[in-house]
Design goal:
The complex is a heterodimer of chains A (about 50) and B (about 170). By secondary structure, chain A is low in regular secondary structure. Chain A has one domain. Chain A has 1 helix and 2 strands. A two-stranded antiparallel sheet of chain A has the order 1-2. In chain A, strand 1 and strand 2 form a beta hairpin. Chain A starts with 6 loop residues before the first strand and ends in a 13-residue tail after the last helix. The mean pLDDT of chain A is about 80. Chain B is α/β, with parallel strands linked by helices and about 170 residues long. Chain B has 2 domains: about 40 residues, no CATH class; about 120 residues, Roll (CBS-domain). Chain B contains 8 helices and 7 strands. In chain B, strand 5, helix 7 and strand 6 form a beta-alpha-beta unit. The mean pLDDT of chain B is about 90. The chains are: A little secondary structure (about 50), B alpha/beta (about 170). At the A-B interface, loops of A face strand 5 and helix 7 of B.
Chain lengths: ~50, ~170
């Protein structure tokens, strides 16, 4: 894939190889793994580090 | 729960307290019971169809396609002997050359989603991405079932109506 064809996450703008939700390299609303996990609440945003 | 919460409960007199080190999300992903205001919301695991056709890497694609068609499925999940998801065969892959092994036709390492994902969010994503089916697994990758877009959208729609009725 060339730079011009690079897929970018619609959430954070990071370059990705394929959409982390549908696995398609030509997805019209691509998302990276991190943004999908946050959107589906599979991951909790870490706003700060703490020991508890 | 967190170690601090566990210690606090012991000071309150609870004697049978455990620290689940893998955390709350892992607890929910394993399908353990939940309490609280959101516990009753339908999750991906509630809607996932458990009777999805599964197959092994070394099966012949034509055999799996025939089995899926006979059961009314347009997808099959490739699993190992531990029922860990290794690949996915959607309609396009199932229509491939029937003589080849599943391993050569499948989508390897497909995106999978956890059991506790709210079905409303799953439905919205599946609609947005025009995705007909998504595998649901535990944290260690074992297959729970396959969520179909039509099921997710229907349940999410019914939930929307319930919310409207409560407001009225």
């Amino acid at each position: 894939m060339t730079a011009a064809q690079a897929l970018k996450c619609g959430g954070c703008g990071n370059e990705i190889e394929s959409c982390a939700f549908c696995d398609e390299p030509d997805c019209s609303s691509p998302r990276c793994n991190h943004c999908v996990a946050l959107a589906l609440r599979e991951r909790i945003p870490q706003l700060h580090a703490h020991g508890g | 729960m967190s170690p601090r919460a566990a210690w606090r409960l012991e000071t309150l007199g609870f004697m049978n307290v455990y620290d689940y080190k893998d955390g709350k999300l892992d607890w929910m992903a394993a399908g353990f019971p939940m309490e609280g205001t959101n516990a009753e919301r339908p999750r991906a695991a509630d809607v996932a169809r458990k009777d999805v056709v599964t197959c092994r890497l070394d099966e012949r694609l034509g055999d799996v396609s025939a089995r899926a068609a006979a059961a009314g499925w347009e997808a099959a999940v490739v699993v190992n002997e531990e029922r860990v998801v290794l690949g996915l065969l959607r309609k396009k892959e199932l229509a491939g050359e029937p003589g080849q092994p599943v391993e050569g036709a499948m989508r390897p390492g497909p995106s999978t989603f956890r059991r506790y994902v709210a079905i409303t969010e799953m439905a919205a994503f599946m609609t947005d991405h025009n995705l007909d089916s998504s595998p649901i697994t535990t944290s260690d990758g074992r297959l729970t079932g396959l969520v179909l877009k039509e099921d997710a959208v229907r349940v999410a729609h019914e939930l929307g109506h319930e919310s409207e009725e409560k407001v009225l």
